[in-house]
Specification:
2 domains, 6-stranded parallel β-sheet, single chain, Rossmann fold, about 15% strand
């Protein structure tokens, strides 16, 4: 009997960011073997030349897989700008080969990318989404935004997924509470708002905690800001870390702080919830669909005082921090467990295959 085949096109699993993390997570599920998934990398970190070579190489491997493997479904993972253009090319090639396409939109600012695009690119975006057999959005908020862009597209909501872990051990006695920032260091993720809030908390006597900043992006700017604020005794800026080290870092933390200005459905929050961390995040994008006042703490965007107050609360109130983290883990088990989500993709593939 012929095996079911799925062809995935996404960034390399060695790249930084949520899409690579999602692909790595799904590779460890039964979906990978059940559909004999082949993953083709069409992007990797590096210079423009590196990215062009990666796409050219990936494009050749993709077309070869279409011709020789004859997949039952193609699953394209896209963000914005160049990522979408690359996946649009692949989507239209799939139409030539009459292979069903699932277009998976990960970009947190996809609606802004659309609104800023010139008219011909907007037409391409609408046609590509409408021509896909299914468009995957990361939550109801993103379903609505994509429906406004392409009303005729078939859009379904499937959340990102993680595997629940053992809950973190909470500090006792004189141990410090470990607060973690995990993401691309910069204004969009709210890194510098966090540092300003942290300085305010420490200035009010908040040295019971330590903060770790981990991620790529504006690493030196963050270190300079730490020096300017004189909080170097309680803040460590690690910069980018290998993805293999992330679980260990999460397991040694107690709070995740991610005061972003814009988000889709950040894997960092899901991974923190899966470890039973208390999450403090801004109420933007798809974040309110992940956490509410039972299983997290939401703060307004760019509000240093509110963020400092939220951090002070979860650092000093151990019972609240533990309760919120436990409820976050329960929500992961109920709604975002990878064992639930991979079955939704299996069902979706069965629906769209011809």
């Amino acid at each position: 009997m012929n095996r079911q085949r799925a062809l995935w096109a996404a960034t390399s699993t060695s790249t930084r960011g949520g899409v690579a993390s999602f692909v790595r997570t799904m590779q460890a599920t039964p979906l990978w073997e059940l559909w004999n998934v082949r993953h083709v990398s069409t992007h990797r970190n590096g210079t423009v030349a590196t990215k062009m070579v990666a796409f050219a190489t990936g494009l050749g491997a993709f077309v070869t897989a279409l011709v020789l493997d004859r997949p039952d479904v193609v699953h394209l993972h896209t963000s914005v700008a160049g990522s979408f253009i690359r996946k649009a090319i692949l989507a239209w090639i799939c139409r030539i080969f009459r292979v069903p396409v699932v277009m998976h939109v990960h970009g947190s600012d996809f609606h802004q990318f659309y609104s800023r695009s010139p008219r011909p690119v907007k037409a391409l975006i609408r046609a590509t989404l409408t021509g896909a057999d299914a468009v995957v959005a990361l939550g109801d908020c993103w379903v609505e935004r994509l429906e406004r862009i392409a009303p005729q597209a078939r859009i379904v909501s499937v959340p990102n997924a993680v595997r629940p872990c053992r809950p973190v051990r909470q500090p006792s006695g004189s141990e410090q509470v470990h607060v973690l920032f995990l993401g691309c260091i910069g204004d969009r993720k709210g890194t510098f708002t966090l540092l300003d809030a942290w300085a305010k908390m420490v200035g009010d006597g908040g040295e019971r905690a330590r903060l770790t900043i981990a991620g790529d992006g504006e690493v030196q700017r963050a270190r300079d800001r730490v020096d300017e604020l004189s909080v170097g005794s309680t803040v460590t800026v690690l910069g980018w870390i290998d993805p293999a080290r992330v679980p260990e870092l999460l397991a040694s933390s107690h709070v995740l702080a991610l005061p972003s200005r814009n988000e889709g459905q950040p894997m960092a929050i899901l991974e923190a919830m899966a470890h039973g961390l208390c999450v403090v995040a801004s109420a933007v994008g798809g974040i309110p669909e992940l956490i509410d006042d039972r299983c997290g703490v939401l703060v307004p965007v760019d509000d240093v005082d509110a963020l400092a107050q939220a951090l002070r609360h979860v650092v000093y109130d151990g019972d609240a921090r533990t309760r919120i983290g436990a409820q976050a883990l329960e929500r992961i088990r109920a709604e975002f467990d990878v064992d639930v989500v991979w079955r939704r993709f299996d069902a979706l593939y069965q629906e769209v295959r011809r």
